[in-house]
Specification:
It is built from 6 helices and 13 strands. It is α+β, with helices and mostly antiparallel strands. The chain has one domain. The strands form 2 sheets. Strands 2, 4, 5, 8, 9, 10 and 12 form a 7-stranded antiparallel β-sheet that branches. The chain has a 6-stranded antiparallel β-sheet with strand order 1-13-3-11-7-6. A hairpin with a 7-residue loop joins strand 6 and strand 7. The longest helix has 13 residues. The chain is globular, with a radius of gyration of 20 Å. Bound molecules: zinc ion. Zinc ion binds next to loops.
């Protein structure tokens, strides 16, 4: 920690200025939640993937279908990547999702895609942990502030450790197996995640990223509506419920289930996938 400079005479006045929300979302196109609620009233399971502990698995969800990430066996955190199944360069953008919806997401929030697309990839339609809110430490669940546990940071912090089941590596192996890409190529497509079920925040005194035991219990699920044709990959984090540590085999780990569900097509009458962002991409250089 560096020495703090002497505060100016008006330091308290400057600190007392009220914050302004960076991205007020009242002009953001609202998701048609009533339509989704009606559609999810009658869902038919079309696929099921079990993600083994300390591994990842991929799944595909057609636009207009739902998917649920479910806790089975015991408290477990999942690291989620999403891509446009037809174009892996369009992928989940956790930073912009955080800027728009806040540090943690729940029902009604959307997962946005990378530039130049910047459109909703998925909308959260149900969250059985929606009761949690923010605890007294400032912690909440389903964060878009973490990145994913990875072997590079682990190597730095452990003075040379080699661990191969961090979420980054699990996602890399799963994407390589799904696509046939070489692992080094698949690795480039792995990106910052939605930390499903993870309970996290920033400490009030030092602003450091913290985690604590996830409140998730078997049967809990987070449900999404796929806005575009999706390829997903989910890693069952080696941190288990992330109550103590990750990037090792020390924590108790459990599988996670991904269930894909189809609504009655008539329930989505009039709905269409959102188009890519309409900015003209001229960047001030003319057309
Ligand atoms: Zn992890």
């Amino acid at each position: 920690m560096q020495d703090r400079p002497t505060p100016p005479a008006d330091a308290e006045a400057r600190r007392a200025l009220p914050p302004v929300i960076c991205y007020p979302t009242d002009t953001l196109p609202a998701p048609p939640m009533a339509l989704y609620t009606a559609a999810r009233a009658a869902l038919r399971a079309t696929g099921n993937v079990l993600v083994p502990p300390r591994e990842a698995a991929t799944f595909r969800v057609p636009a207009g279908h739902f998917f649920r990430i479910r806790s089975v066996g015991g408290p477990q955190v999942g690291d989620l990547n999403l891509w446009n199944v037809k174009d892996l360069s369009e992928r989940f953008y956790s930073g912009k999702t955080r800027a728009l919806h806040g540090t943690h997401v729940t029902t009604g929030d959307r997962l946005w895609s990378s530039f130049p697309h910047l459109r909703p990839m998925a909308t959260i339609t149900h969250d059985t942990l929606g009761w949690y809110g923010f605890d007294s430490y400032g912690g909440s669940v389903h964060d878009v502030i973490g990145t994913r546990c990875d072997p590079y940071t682990h190597n730095l912090l452990s003075h040379g450790g080699q661990y191969h089941h961090c979420c980054h590596s699990n996602l890399t192996r799963a994407l390589a197996a799904e696509t046939g890409l070489q692992p080094a190529e698949a690795e480039r497509h792995v990106h910052d995640v939605l930390n499903v079920f993870m309970c996290t925040g920033f400490t009030r005194d030092t602003g450091q990223y913290f985690m604590k035991a996830s409140p998730v219990r078997p049967g809990d699920y987070l449900e999404f509506f796929a806005e575009i044709d999706l390829l997903g990959a989910l890693s069952a984090c080696p941190g288990g419920d992330c109550s103590a540590e990750h990037s090792s085999d020390a924590a108790a780990c459990h599988p996670l289930e991904v269930e894909v569900l189809a609504p009655d097509p008539a329930a989505l009458a009039g709905w269409a996938s959102p188009p890519p962002n309409r900015y003209d991409r001229s960047h001030g250089l003319g057309q």
